[in-house]
Amino acid sequence: MEKEGAKEETQQVLKVLEALKQASHEIQCNPSPDSPGSNSSSAIKALLELETESDSILSYDPHLSNLSHHLTNLRILINSLQKSRSHHGLRSFLTRRIITLDISRVAGSIESEIQSWIHRETIINLIRALQLQQSICSSCSLSSVEEDKFLDSIDQFRIRLKQGFSNEFQDLILKSKVFSKLESVLCRSNFSKRVREKAAFVIVELVKFNKDVFVGQVLMGQTVRALMSMGSLSSLQILYSLIKSIKSPLVDDIEENGETQKIISFLSSDDLLVRIMAMDCVLEIGYFGRREAVEEMMNVGLIKKLVELQRSELGGDLIDLDKVGEEGENRGVEVGEWERNGRWGRRENGERRLLESHPFASCVGRFAVALEVGEGLRRREKRWFKQEILTRVREASVSDAEAVTIIAEVLWGSSP
After folding, report:
1. Which of 129, 132, 195, 321 could cysteine-pair with 153, CB 3.0–4.6 Å?
2. Eight-class DSSP state of 314
3. Which of 208, 17, 215, 5 is CA-nearest to residue 119?
4. What average pLDDT is seen over the chain?
5. How far apart are CA 236 and CA 83, in angstroms?
């Protein structure tokens, strides 16, 4: 009960601070209430009302003592500004200008103090939730209530990461060792899939937050192996996003750890969406992969599997499909919460529609294009792999007609 009361009190403080932050931001942007079109009069009024209301609320937290001090200073400055308006002349004008600048400065300090408190509370709540996970034995799982609390803390942290980089917030993250704690949750097979996936999604956001710091932690840790062991749609979406963010270093890591064959195996999944997501991962690996990674994919039967997928009812070749596109049915494949808008989704509208209804259309040619325009291979390596693809297409095709069609796409491209 005490914990619930503390949580309610924190939520009350947060509500007041968010209102103070908004009012402070408006005042900081336009501190003079006499300016044309200014909203600062209402912002100042709201902030002073909140300052009176917040006295008792802010007093319980020592981290908010500076904020109380700034609010008091702001009230004094606003009173001084109002008194100065009863006087005229150059001296009074200059006094009002100085006070206005001081109001903007103090409003900025208020906003900064509030943001620091929000950062601190976000990290504290997350660390509490992560420590709860670590305290649970390897054979136990979370209750539904504990899961909901954990996921709520994760969501709040993820929302803050999406707001952009902050040195102060990063320092708090590093001091609290958030990354290693999240990775520990991801690697715990006794936790539910949604808990592990949420932890993984936050790892992606950490990489986007600052690649210079968190890419190294991904490469040195167990994130990729844990994602591969899960083998779910979301885990492949996360892997896809990490490949796009980290590029060749992560592809090298996947190849060195022997995970390439697992990705290829997902192309045979019973779940269509998993197959589609695995295809996207294969294309990204082809684009960023160096010789060893591409060679490994070839050696574990990638081209044979792509030929089979292109032969399936969800395959075909884009040139022929474009000709009959108006007559074909639209299967409207969806891919979960992440829109497939990556490198291979940004095509002409007509081709995009064809790939939605036939996600494996011209997949051999699309893979060849990924190698051709990609960043991982040297020019002579690209030529060699193109010839290797042609050889393997001939071996995998069930007829000369099929081989000719696919080879033409590999040689000349797959776009209609």
Report:
1. 129
2. T
3. 17
4. 82
5. 64
pTM across the whole model: 0.78
* pLDDT tens digit sequence for 267-297: 999 999 999 999 999 999 999 999 999 999 9
Q: How far is CA 136 from the centre of its chain?
A: 28
CA atoms of 145 and 134, how far apart (whole Å): 16
Integer CA distances (angstroms), 1 to 5, 6, 8, 115, 143, in order: 6, 9, 11, 28, 18
Find out whether 273 and 231 touch, Cβ atoms under 8 Å. no
Rounded Cα distance, 263 and 397, in Å: 22
117 phi and psi angles, rounded to 5 deg = -65, -45
Question: Where along the chain do its domains lie?
Answer: 2-118, 222-416
CA nearest to 159, candidates 130, 113, 201: 201
Q: pLDDT tens for residues 88-109?
A: 777 777 888 888 888 889 888 8
Q: Determine the distance from the C-alpha atom of residue 142 to the mean position of all C-alpha atoms in its chain, rounded to a whole number.
A: 25
String of b and e for 32-61 (b: at least 16 CB within 10 Å)?
Answer: bbeeeebebeebbebbbebbeebeebbeeb
222-416, CATH topology level: Leucine-rich Repeat Variant (1.25.10)
User: What 3-state class would DSSP assign to 221?
Assistant: coil
Amino acid 77: pLDDT = 87
CA atoms within 13 A on the CB side of 115: 17
Find out whether 185 and 177 touch, Cβ atoms under 8 Å: no
* CA–CA distance, 69 with 59 (Å, rounded to integer): 11
> Are 333 and 274 contacting, i.e. CB atoms less than 8 angstroms apart?
no
Closest C-alpha to 405, from 321, 301, 331:
321
Residue 357 token pair: 């209804």
pLDDT of residue 42: 67
Q: Which of 11-20, 78-87, 213-222 shows the highest mean pLDDT?
A: 213-222
Beta strands in 283-363 (DSSP E): none
Q: Are 44 and 95 in contact (CB under 8 A)?
A: no
User: Tokens standing for 348?
Assistant: 């002409």
- The 3-state DSSP class for residue 296 equals helix
> What's residue 58's pLDDT?
64
DSSP state for residue 222 in the 8-state scheme: S
